[in-house]
Amino acid sequence: MKRKIVGLVSIFFMALMLAIPMGTMAAEDTIKLVDVAPLSGPVKDIGDRYLEGTKYAIEIINKNGGLLGKKVELISIDSEYKPDVATRKAQTVILKEGAKFFHVPAGTHIGIAVLNLAEKNDLLIFTSGVMSASLTGANCNKRFFRVCGTTDQYSYALANAIVKEGHKKIAIIAQDYSFGHEAVVAFKKKLAELDPSTKIVSEIFHPIGTKDFAPYVSQFIAAKPDAIFSPNFGNDMTIFLKQGRPMGMKQKVFSYFNGDEVVIAGLGNDDLIEGNVGVETYYLTIPTKKNAEFVAQYHKDVGNYPAFWRAKAYLAVMFWAEAVKKAGTTDVTAVRKAWEGLTYDSPAGLWTMRACDHQLQSAWWYAKNVKKNKFYKHAYVDTAQQIPAKEVTISCEDTGCKMSQ
Q1: CATH number at residue 100
Q2: Could you report the per-residue pLDDT of 336-345, keeping only the tens digit for each?
Q3: Do 118 and 218 lie in a common domain?
Q4: Same domain for 18 and 84?
Q5: Residue 75 and residue 132 share a domain
Q6: In sequence order, which residues have a C-beta less than 8 Å from that of residue 117 and are 6 or more positions away?
């Protein structure tokens, strides 16, 4: 009996030892990507679309053999658009899953919160929508990569558009937090450089989630601007236009997010947005064969068009994947160095990750809202026109980035 017990114990421990390498190998055969998006709260619709684009990118990567022969596993975190929530959930994932790669698509405050965990936990963080210029400027970090435009670039491009159209009296409305303020500072700086004769006739900052824009619209109407500049997004832009147009606010709005199809559809009236102007690193209407193929395949596979936030997330994840491939390893330092200076042939053209500040360098695209288009029954944007990168490029010296290696 004693020999039987010893034999059974030996068999148990042998099975246990055999199981450990198998579990370890399974873990090693998976590359974890953590997506930290707002999936509840005031900007849930934006987070949902970012996540859709991220999921599709991972689906395509895995369909084509994964990365380095390994499957990419998506771990989704709802940031709730709250830094403390994002930090707590990210720490849990780091401890339980050993995750090293984080995609933070929305919210400067969320990006900063997760970035605070990067050094201690050996993370690499990239974004497809956090646009605060300081994160690749004075507060740049070797562990942070931006695969989208900055507030400076958007504002510079829109200032160029306003000056080219000959507008002289400008009104400004922006959300009252770091992103809104940075966008306005950059816009005013570039506008003054391009045409010192332009004048800011009204400047308003309001809380995110404002429900009553009537007092602000009244100020605009009294100031009589030629055009309006705004970096507002989501419901804040929807309500602003819905309330402003009927009150007599007829001016063209030059905005960061005129290509947001959900905002446009939510207006319920194409007259409210027709003629508005925007700039972007990606539009559905970029007139290239590669983009047309991408849009068609996405629509076939997902049932939606890869407009705006969806495409931003997809392209950022695909660019990260190219860096992992080049590195030939999932070592964070190796991937970081592989990404520096790397060029990705995207549906929007050639994208290069500048080494000195980890800021995407690319051509930009200019488009106006029109009623008739081939994608939606509601208004969208017309055929995008390319803006040379040099018109919106800010040198590393001017950004203030001093990257520590």
Answers
A1: 3.40.50.2300
A2: 999 999 999 9
A3: no
A4: yes
A5: yes
A6: 87, 90, 91, 94, 123
Using CA atoms, how far residue 346 sits from 249, 253, 314, 331, in Å, is 38, 29, 10, 25
* pLDDT: which is higher, 160 or 202: 202
Q: What is the pLDDT of residue 405?
A: 64
How confident is the model over 91-95, as a mean pLDDT? 96
Give the separation between CA 332 and CA 400, rounded to whole angstroms.
Answer: 25
Q: How far apart, in whole angstroms, are the C-alpha atoms of residue 281 and residue 290?
A: 15
In a domain, 367, yes or no: no
Strands 343-346 and 349-353: antiparallel
Residue type, 280: E
322 located within any domain = yes
In sequence order, the 6+-apart residues with CB closer than 8 A to the CB of 274 are: 369, 370, 371, 379
- Same domain flag for 31 and 156: no
- Write down the mean pLDDT value for the chain: 91
pTM, 2 dp: 0.86
How many angstroms separate the CA atoms of 156 and 84, rounded? 32
Domain-located, residue 393: no
- How many residues belong to the chain? 405
